[in-house]
Specification:
2 strands, single chain, 55% helix, mainly alpha, 11 helices, DNA-3-methyladenine glycosylase activity, Endonuclease III, domain 1
Length: 207
């Protein structure tokens, strides 16, 4: 069941509520297919920072994350070191968690390896796109809210961890896949669902 927003009357997924920032993220970003390596890398990192927290907490700090991690420029993040970690641990504008900060730098280095092997992070990631036959028939909010991971997210998580990535469990990977458009999890009745599906149908998958 979609919920009509008090602010604009549009039927959308219930999870953004009437928070303006959250609504904008839901309407303009979430689920729309992404093939930019920078954006994909940023999302992998921020999903890792979200672990144990809510996404709105990360979203409100996203601009500061972008500032301190050089716009998530992959080579620049990979070049960061222990001095940078110590500096970031003093920054109240981000999540000050040593393990997650270190994981971001580590994951940048691992991403460079993926780019060398596959040509791009996008070409690697889109190999794990969820096939239509693996989607539930019931795309209601009640059903989708219980879907924490999928066969595809388990495979992606396992492969990333084998490659040395950190903070990339199956649930984190599924949230990443939902946000980056590898699956369309806008519920039936949400005004974004048809738009997202059209974008996915028109997308030329990276090779």
């Amino acid at each position: 069941m979609s919920i009509e927003s008090v602010a604009d009357g549009l039927p959308r997924c219930p999870w953004p509520g009437d928070d303006a920032l959250y609504r904008h993220y839901h309407d303009r970003e979430w689920g729309r297919p992404v093939t930019s390596d920078t954006r994909l890398f940023e999302k992998i990192c921020l999903e890792g920072f979200q672990s144990g927290l809510s996404w709105i907490t990360i979203l409100r700090k996203r601009e500061r994350f972008r500032e301190v991690f050089h716009g998530f420029d992959i080579p620049k993040v990979a070049a960061m070191g222990e001095t940078d970690i110590e500096t970031l641990l003093q920054d109240p504008g981000i999540i000050r968690h040593r393990g997650k900060i270190a994981a971001t730098i580590n994951n940048a280095k691992r991403t460079l390896e993926i780019q060398r092997e596959f040509g791009s992070l996008a070409a690697y990631v889109w190999r794990f796109e969820t096939r239509p036959e693996h989607r539930p028939d019931d795309l209601s909010w009640e059903n989708l809210r219980r879907l924490a991971q999928t066969e595809a997210s388990v495979r992606l998580s396992k492969d990333l961890r084998k490659r040395g990535f950190n903070f990339v469990g199956p649930t984190t990977c599924y949230a990443f896949m939902q946000a980056m458009g590898l699956v369309n999890d806008h519920i039936e009745g949400c005004f974004c669902r048809g738009e997202v599906e059209a974008e996915r149908n028109a997308l030329e998958r990276p090779r």
